[in-house]
């Protein structure tokens, strides 16, 4: 048996991961495969760092240098005959919420479907205006945030009650 020990100067370490909506989506799929053994219902019990239901992908521990994606699970609903997980995903860069999208995820063993709302700068600004009153580094979602989810005529709408900001998604039936 060979054992080597000693001291060394710490190196720069691994490069921080740049988190995007696409890397967040890939991480959700991987989590379902690995932790849920292919059962997406494992997502119902997954929580964000603030204990709300959701899925987070953290790029680096240092918030001032990190890019993160926090997906708040708003619901698991039947839309157009398929089960969809509906998330409101905040993309955070260096401690600031840079984008928020409503995202639908539909899973089958052989295929996954994603639907993503378009950018909504007006709603992002309304949300940011409320958040900037409370913290140097606002988090998404904040503990005090209250989001509602309405599903009508194949349209999902998420509304932030405190600011009136809203995001709309029209999940297309998977083929």
In short:
This protein is mainly β.
Q: How would you describe this structure in keywords?
A:
175 residues; mainly beta; 2 helices; 8 strands; globular; disordered N terminus
Q: What does this entry look like structurally?
A:
The chain is mainly beta. It has one domain. The protein contains two helices and eight strands. Strands 1-2-3-4-5 form a five-stranded antiparallel sheet, sandwiched between helices. It has a three-stranded antiparallel sheet with strand order 6-7-8, with no helix packed on it. A hairpin with a 2-residue loop joins β3 and β4. The longest helix has 14 residues. The N terminus is likely disordered.
Low-pLDDT stretches are 1-11
Class from secondary-structure proportions: mainly beta
Radius of gyration in whole Å, from Cα?
18 Å
Strand order of the largest sheet: 1-2-3-4-5
Helix content: 10-25%
Q: From N to C, what is the helix and strand string?
A: HEEEEEHEEE
The backbone outline, from C-alpha atoms, is globular
The total count of strands amounts to 8
Largest sheet: 5 strands, antiparallel
